[in-house]
Amino acid sequence: MERFFMNKTAAKEWLTKAWHHLSSAQLLFQLEHYTDIIAIEIHYAVEITLKSFLAYDNSKIFKTHDLIDIYKHIKDHINFDSEWGSVGDCAKTSRNLKIFL
Q: Is 88 helix (H, G, I), strand (E, B) or coil?
């Protein structure tokens, strides 16, 4: 897919929101808050970070919280370094955590 316009402003807005969720999760963890709430904040941080790639690419941002679905929309546009593992594996782990909690 050829990119004619990359929307850095929109991506930064999404990443700022992701940072808010991640920071909240960190604070809640330090306060020994409920782990299910911390997991939700982390899930949102990952979800919004993935959606920031779509925003940067000026692609449609789908109304879903399913990390695997979001990953399917971005995997062809982004070359993830295999050293970091599979984003799909992380999404599956998050989905399993959600079911477990």
A: helix
Element at 50 (helix H, strand E)? helix 35-56
Whether 81 maps to a domain, the answer reads: yes
Q: Which residue has the higher pLDDT, 75 or 5?
A: 75
Which amino acid, 84? W
The domain total for the chain is 1
- The per-residue pLDDT for range 47-91, each reduced to its tens digit, is 999 999 999 888 888 899 999 999 888 887 666 555 445 555 655
Could you tell me the CATH number of the domain that includes residue 43? 1.20.120.330
Q: Indicate the DSSP class of residue 4.
A: S
Residues 6+ apart with CB under 8 A from 43: 65, 67, 94, 97, 98
Which structural domain range is residue 13 located in? 8-100
Closest CA to 56 of 35, 77, 40, 41: 77
Is residue 3 in some structural domain? no
